[in-house]
Design goal:
The protein is mostly helical. It contains seven helices and two strands, in the order ββααααααα. The two termini are about 30 Å apart.
Amino acid sequence: MNAHTSEHQIIKAPDGTPLYALIPWEEYEEQFGGRPDEEVFIPHEVVALNLLHAKPMIRAWREHLGLTQREVAGRMGVSQPAYAKMEAKDAKPRVATLKKIAAALGVQWEQIRG
């Protein structure tokens, strides 16, 4: 299939079970940085929280790991309100900040960039 589409596509097995989700390249680049040659894994639950429930990637990871904002803030050495701003929907943390958050969560920084 070479036709251009801007919609998501689901490829299913003969029994109807979803196997793959195809998304437009622009959306892939926005979500994952357009780096298909590097191995960055994100658990399904994190992806679902991010895409289906519209939660920022940082928050999705924190919730997936069962951590509170206060716990992550403590690991980073910042206040809970300061951390809350970092995981807000409209937040655009710098790479240096993403690396600090990732270290506090115990994940790679590439896994939390949104």
